Each structure stands twice: as structure tokens, then as C-alpha cells.
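Hi R.,

Here's the chain you asked about this morning:
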Amino acid sequence: MSTTATSNGPASITVRGLRRSYDDVPVLRGMTFEVHAGEIFVIMGPSGSGKSVLLRHLIGLETPDAGEILINGHVAHSEELKDQCRMAMVFQSGGLLNSLTVGENVGLYLVEHELADAAGVARVVAEKLALVGLAGKEDLWPAELSGGMRKRVAIARALVADPQLILFDEPTSELDPVMSAMVGREILELKRRTQVTTLVVTHDRDLAFGIADRIAFVSRGEIRFVGTPSEVRQQRDPELHEFLNVEFQTNTTHEQP
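And here is the predicted structure, written out as C-alpha cells:
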């Protein structure tokens, strides 16, 4: 998904006191954090911790019971935001349409919104596919792609709108370790090339520590800690320890691949 925009530069996100309950059961319990413009911010936590609910709020599919989300200073679910910030989403499954070729999937946004003629669409599609290492794959069908390739096509499709903010929902889900590492490298390379603000929701610890500028650890609907990968490794929070399942050392450092 994506939205059009008039402003430029990477987006920033401010979340303040976000609360959401379903049938009187609290799921988000006053979440507060900020995502800086141009950074890779990873939200990490166990299943059922509220990550997916938070993501739905960030992209404006749900509104909170209390608190607010501001993206470039605009409320997340507002019409005003749609005119002021370009956003794109890479879904967990990839979300490709099996009845369309790779090229047609990537160019769908441009075609549906009549933003370019056929030659213009073809040029943009080729450019975005090249960015994710899939140059010349326009005529393939989704069924012909590996899981890793499908993820990369989904990233290319998200990039068509030249987003200021791109969100990834479990980008390494159902991928083997080799493909997961490849997707991590793609996210890092996109940051290097485009400076787009990137928010990644994941339970993949290797991905989180491999790509993040900062990590937010979520548990039971609360942000328990936000910091750099090195700072996360040095924390003594027992829930964080249990999730990471590693032995923490005071002098542990983090290296980006």
C-alpha cells in the first residue's frame, strides 16, 4: 500500500501513550516512542506482544482508544497525512497478485493512479527491480519465484511511490537463514541508496541486530526498552533476556554486516 504526497525527505514518527483494547482486554498499554527521520527502527518482541496491532495503527487501519501517532507531525489515520507523506508497506506474505506478472505487480500503483504512460511505467518498474537485484525479471509470474524473490518484488513494488517511510511486517517470515540474510542486506542497501525511514516489525533476532539503528523491545503491549543493538545487548531486563535467549556480557558489541 502507498499514499501520494507533496513533501520531501525521510519521515519521522512520534507515538505517545498509545492504548488499544479489544473486548475490554488491553493489547496496547500506553506505548510511547519516536522513530527518527532516515533511521532503520526495528520493533521486536514475542508473538502476541502487540506488534501487529501497533503496525495496523501506524498505517492507519485502526484508531487508538487513547494516545496518538504523528507521522511528520500529522495524525496517522488522517486525510491530511495522505497529502503530506508518501508511505509504503511490505506485507508479511509479500501480497503479490498471482494473476499479474512481476512487472505488472510492481507497476500496479502507477497504472491504477494513471501516473505514467506505458513507457514511463516500464522505466520505473525496471529501475525498482534493478534496485532489489531483479533486473530483467518483469515477465516472470509470482508462482515462478522463490520466497526470497517474492519478498524482493514486494519491496520493489513498495518503492514505486518513492516513499518517505517504508514499513516491513515480518520480512523474513517463512524464509530460510540464507534468504533471511539476503532480505536483511536488501533493507540495508535501500537505506544506503534512498535514506528512506524504515520501520521493521519482526521476531527475528538476527535480522533485528543485523540491520537496526535502534531497536524497541515490546512485551505484553508495552515498550520495555529502546536503544541501539549494543545497548539492547547490555540490558538486564529478564523478559528481554528470555526472548533473546543469549548470555549477555557487559562488553558485548554489535557489528553491522
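One quick note: The chain has a mean pLDDT of 86.

Cheers,
M.
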